[in-house]
């Protein structure tokens, strides 16, 4: 028996892939999270209202999603509804996070795979290729920065934001700042579209080279965005079963009826299934469950994607293309929302703290994120974090198995396997810090 | 023109943390043209730190036996090591301090047969290696990263958060009880202490641009103690905060004490001040702080 270990880079956190091969047969392909964050333990006994400052620290990449989910869970416990203006500002905040995350995943994490480079920065320094022509690194970082600037605008600061509070948000978005952001988006949307087209083209070239989009069997798909109203500040979860349209919808309160989460002794991350079935969350799940974005450029990409690859589509590397579509959507949508008056009107309502159980749901870049809190005597008795990366664990394992079988043959283990392993894992854009909360 | 190969080697080692420091660093992209990035697994395919690194940033706390190994190896290969972020300076959120219930349940849950061992606590870097420069913050802002990388010797850092906050301290607005984490509407332009919030900006190192307090969120102390309280026992920081509240408010002392001991503030304030409890750790001089 030969055990091959591949350490992983260009993903969030510490993880590795371990593959067991005997003769020319693949026995095991595991994705292992190598550290444990353990927030469920730290927050026991913390005054409930303070948890919203602590839990963004679960992950610096997803801190915005954790903060909003945390606030929504406490609003559920305290039985209050924030004003519509606050809901809209939270949406802008989450759009900022989607832009930041998808730009990071597309250009910093996965673009180098398509150009055979070790990093985006190496790409920009190389003398040849399209990279220089497109000022790739520079432009990619500019697009990513729109995301972080939007988070700062709506959230106060771009990592561990602070402006979302129980009952609403602390302040609106002043007109002149909204206008400045609109101007930046107007300027850079064509650059983003160019980058996404370039990325799409490089992906096609890569697929020609390697001969696959990463084919795998269909799975269930899980998202909390709506088919015709793509809101990240979401209210319910939707599920697509094998090849069907939507087959279940449920409130975050009912997640345990559908989703089963377990631990394992070969990883610090949890593993979940949907009533015994493998599921996928993240960009491809959302695209498969979206009929229309309601913004022109994103809808054109959605159509192009559906015509080229069918809908639902299942190959692993489609996750990456879908991130590109969502990046364009989030820029267009942020532009739309900033045109409204987000400055005047009620931004928050008062509340009386009380005990109880509450759930907070948002669509994080990696899929639906749920925080569940039990509050007793004003303190957190128990906190559960239901993490989208965990929902992808079985799908990642199966996709790794498919890749391993492809590159292990009687002739030996192909050197391409290491690259394939990286491509598969990065397509799911896992977040280890979150998955080991 | 210099080719990237002539530029000094720059590496970023991430121990146990949230990647927030790396995300912040990516927003201060000027370093890309000043350094040759040789190791930063978040953005570069790289599995080991090469020799002769000029500057090594280390983020995250020491949490696993692998962390200790990687940190020591990194130190031996770098001329200058900068500890970045709260976790690297204090152990961070994962610091259990005297919370034995959390420690016990964590250790029980973290047992795995085939995984690196989790240590019983999260530790600051200087428990294991020499640190040349400390860059506190959760996370440090992109501007602070640039200060640390460009010209740290001549850095001018605001002594406390209040210096950059711009909110006015009033003599005639004296709350009689703590307002809580958040309730009611924050008045613009007026000091949060005047409004009854437990803001610890008066004792916390500045340089962050008062990112939290300006929009109305009380400072939780993520940049750690200001220079006068470096290496001092917790008592000195807490006494200073008590004095501030006695001078500016009519809130009973017991209520303030209770608030200062709350887990919310212990997230940072407690961690940094707790540092001095361990006599084996080196002194952090103000020259080494950004």
Output the keywords.
heterodimer; A: about 425 residues; alpha+beta; four-stranded mixed beta sheet; three-stranded antiparallel beta sheet; 16 helices; B: about 290 residues; alpha/beta; five-stranded parallel beta sheet; two-stranded antiparallel ribbon; 10 helices; 7 strands; about 30% helix; globular
Brief overview:
Chain A is an alpha+beta fold and about 425 residues long.
Unreliable spans of chain A are none
Tell me the total number of β-strands of chain A. Answer: 16
Helix fraction of chain B by DSSP (H/I, runs of at least 4): 25-40%
Number of strands of chain B: 7
Proportion of strand residues of chain B: 5-15%
**Greatest interface and its residue counts?**
A-B, 68 and 62 residues
How is this structure best described in words?
The complex is a heterodimer of chains A (437) and B (290). Chain A has helices spanning 39-42, 51-54, 63-78, 84-115, 120-125, 129-133, 136-155, 175-210, 255-258, 283-288, 296-309, 318-339, 388-391, 393-407, 416-428, 432-435; strands at 2-7, 15-22, 25-33, 164-165, 168-169, 220-223, 237-240, 246-250, 259-264, 267-274, 279-280, 356-364, 367-376, 379-386, 408-409, 412-413. With 437 residues, chain A is an alpha+beta fold. In chain A, α4 packs parallel to α8. The radius of gyration of chain A is 21 Å and the shape is globular. Chain A starts with a strand and ends with a helix. Chain B has 290 residues and is of the alpha/beta class. Helix content of chain B is 30%, strand content 12%. In chain B, the strands form two sheets. Chain B has a five-stranded parallel sheet with strand order 2-1-3-5-7, with helices on both faces. In chain B, α8 crosses α9. Classes of the chains: A alpha+beta (437), B alpha/beta (290). At the A-B interface, α1, α2, α4, α5 and α7 of A face α1, α5 and α10 of B.
């Amino acid at each position: 028996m030969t055990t091959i270990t591949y350490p992983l880079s260009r993903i969030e956190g510490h993880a590795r892939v371990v593959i067991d091969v005997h003769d020319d047969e693949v026995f095991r392909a595991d994705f292992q999270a190598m550290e444990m964050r353990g927030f469920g333990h730290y927050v026991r006994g913390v005054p409930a209202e303070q948890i919203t400052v602590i839990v963004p620290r679960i992950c610096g990449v997803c801190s915005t999603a954790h903060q909003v989910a945390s606030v929504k869970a406490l609003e559920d416990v305290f039985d209050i509804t924030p004003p519509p203006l606050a809901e809209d500002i939270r949406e802008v905040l989450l759009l900022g996070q989607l832009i930041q995350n998808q730009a990071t995943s597309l250009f910093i994490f996965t673009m180098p795979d398509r150009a055979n480079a070790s990093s985006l920065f190496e790409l920009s320094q190389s003398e040849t290729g399209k990279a220089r022509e497109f000022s790739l690194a520079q432009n990619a970082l500019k697009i990513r920065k729109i995301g972080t600037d939007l988070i700062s605008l709506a959230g106060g600061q771009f990592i561990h934001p602070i402006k979302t509070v129980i009952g609403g948000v602390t302040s609106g978005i002043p007109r002149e700042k909204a206008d400045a952001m609109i101007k930046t988006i107007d300027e850079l949307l064509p650059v983003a579209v160019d980058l996404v087209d370039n990325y799409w083209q490089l992906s096609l070239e890569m697929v020609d080279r390697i001969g696959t989009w990463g084919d795998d069997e269909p799975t269930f798909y899980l998202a909390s965005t709506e088919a015709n109203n793509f809101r990240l500040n979401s209210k319910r979860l939707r599920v697509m079963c094998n090849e069907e349209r939507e087959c279940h919808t449920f409130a975050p309160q009912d997640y345990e009826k559908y989703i089963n989460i377990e631990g394992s002794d070969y990883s610090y991350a949890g593993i979940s299934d949907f009533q015994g079935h493998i599921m996928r969350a993240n960009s491809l799940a959302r695209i498969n469950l979206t009929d229309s974005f309601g913004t022109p450029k994103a809808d054109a990409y959605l159509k192009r994607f559906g015509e080229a690859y069918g809908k639902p589509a299942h190959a692993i590397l489609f996750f990456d293309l879908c991130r590109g579509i969502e990046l364009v959507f989030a820029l267009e949508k942020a532009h739309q929302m900033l045109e409204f008056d987000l400055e005047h009107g009620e931004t928050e309502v008062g509340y009386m703290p009380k005990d109880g159980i509450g759930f907070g749901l948002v669509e994080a870049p990696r899929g639906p994120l749920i925080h569940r809190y039990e509050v007793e005597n004003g303190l957190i008795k128990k906190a559960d974090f239901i993490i989208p990366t965990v929902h992808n664990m079985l799908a990642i394992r199966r996709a790794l198995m498919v890749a391993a079988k492809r590159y292990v043959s009687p002739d030996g283990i192909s050197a391409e396997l290491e690259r394939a392993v990286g491509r598969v894992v990065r397509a799911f854009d896992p977040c280890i810090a979150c998955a080991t909360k | 023109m210099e080719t990237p190969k002539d530029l000094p080697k720059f590496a970023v080692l991430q121990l146990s943390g949230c990647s927030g420091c790396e995300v912040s660093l990516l927003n201060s992209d000027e370093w890309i043209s000043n350094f040759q990035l040789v190791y930063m697994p978040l953005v570069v395919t790289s599995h080991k730190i090469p020799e002769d690194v000029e500057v090594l940033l280390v983020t995250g706390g020491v949490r696993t036996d692998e962390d200790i190994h990687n940190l020591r190896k990194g130190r031996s290969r770098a001329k200058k090591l900068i500890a970045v972020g709260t976790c690297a300076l204090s152990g961070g959120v994962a610091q259990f301090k005297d919370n034995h219930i959390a420690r016990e349940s964590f250790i029980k849950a973290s047992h795995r047969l085939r995984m690196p061992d989790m240590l019983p606590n999260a530790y600051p870097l200087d428990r294991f290696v020499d640190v040349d420069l400390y860059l506190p913050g959760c996370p440090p802002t992109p501007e602070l990263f640039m200060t640390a990388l460009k010209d740290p010797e001549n850095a001018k850092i605001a002594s406390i958060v209040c210096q950059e906050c711009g909110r006015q301290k009033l003599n005639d607005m004296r709350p009689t009880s703590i307002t809580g984490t958040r309730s009611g509407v924050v008045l613009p332009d007026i000091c949060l202490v005047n409004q009854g919030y437990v803001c610890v900006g008066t004792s916390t190192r500045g340089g962050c641009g008062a990112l939290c307090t300006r929009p109305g969120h009380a400072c939780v102390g993520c940049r750690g103690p200001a220079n006068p309280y470096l290496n001092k026992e917790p008592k000195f920081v807490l006494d200073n905060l008590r004095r501030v509240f006695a001078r500016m408010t009519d809130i009973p002392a017991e209520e303030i004490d209770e608030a200062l001991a709350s887990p919310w503030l212990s997230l940072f304030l407690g961690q940094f001040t707790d540092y001095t409890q361990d006599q084996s750790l080196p002194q952090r001089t103000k020259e080494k702080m950004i």
